[in-house]
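ok trying this again, last paste got cut off
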Amino acid sequence: MVRTPAIQKTLAEKTIYSAVKLTDGTIMRVSQVQFSIFTLVLSMLQPILIVLVLAVILSLLLAAQIARKIVNPINENRPGASGSGTNL
């Protein structure tokens, strides 16, 4: 049996080829594609950005709601808030 491995690389993927000559004279060829780190990171970028945008939107909404809850009692109890016209 003769084994001849070969590797072909591109930016997106690496293909590994192997050929084996069998005892009956036929040649069996096999190949496998492996994605590069660049491709894997690029494919994960979209879900990460979606989660990041949703987290920012949620934090802004929650921050506005919490700020209103903190400021409302202060605004209700300040002098002149009742509309009496006596501002300091």
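PB: full thing came through this time. The longest strand covers residues 13-21.
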